[in-house]
Design brief:
200 residues, 32% strand, globular
Length: 200
């Protein structure tokens, strides 16, 4: 494992390494709790919103020539309808919110502070664009789902330590095929939020 290099790409620049981000998402989200049966076609549709937004940011981490981590963010006003809808339904001003897409990191490189770095850089992005609230969502899976690995520990404690709060009343609906399936099914995803002006 060599020295890691971080690269920041904005808007159309992301197209240079969109395949690397897609491959990471397909690999990492195949695991619990997403169980994502990824395809390049799905990824192209999903990532296109970042390429079309001049205010988007992709954070890529490289180990030599291998992209081992990636994280994305863009103003919620530039995001897809699935992410915006639960806020619109609640009468919230989406113009104040920065939307964190995902953080994906290969298992071989976890535990080195990269998750913290992803949050730091995305919160900095929010401040640069005058956005006071950061938000992301995580998939809801049943606690007794037989596919859940024994001893699984989620990221709730890490997110809470960062100052994020789960908002059970703000739930988005995203669709993707689970492992072994070819048809996408809808999954509820609950938002976590942080007001950057409030104490963590």
């Amino acid at each position: 494992m060599g020295e890691l290099r971080t690269e920041l790409l904005r808007g159309e620049e992301i197209a240079r390494h969109v395949d690397a981000v897609a491959d990471l998402r397909i690999t990492v989200f195949r695991d619990w709790p997403y169980l994502y049966e990824g395809t390049r076609e799905y990824e192209a549709r999903y990532l296109d919103v970042y390429l079309r937004s001049p205010r988007s940011l992709a954070i890529l981490v490289w180990d030599g020539d291998a992209c081992i981590g990636a994280s994305t963010v863009l103003p919620l006003a530039d995001a897809g309808a699935e992410a915006q809808q639960p806020f619109r339904d609640g009468g919230q001003a989406i113009e104040t919110i920065d939307y964190f897409g995902e953080s994906v990191l290969l298992k071989s490189h976890r535990g080195r502070g990269l998750g913290v770095k992803f949050f730091d850089l995305r919160e900095q992005h929010a401040r640069e664009h005058g956005l006071s609230i950061c938000a992301f969502c995580s998939v809801n899976r049943s606690a007794d789902d037989p596919r859940k690995p024994a001893g699984y520990i989620g990221n709730d404690s890490f997110w809470t330590h960062r100052g994020y709060h789960k908002e059970p009343g703000i739930v988005a609906s995203f669709s993707w095929p689970d492992i072994g399936e070819v048809v996408s099914t809808t999954k509820p995803m609950t938002f976590w939020m942080r007001d950057l002006g409030a104490a963590a």
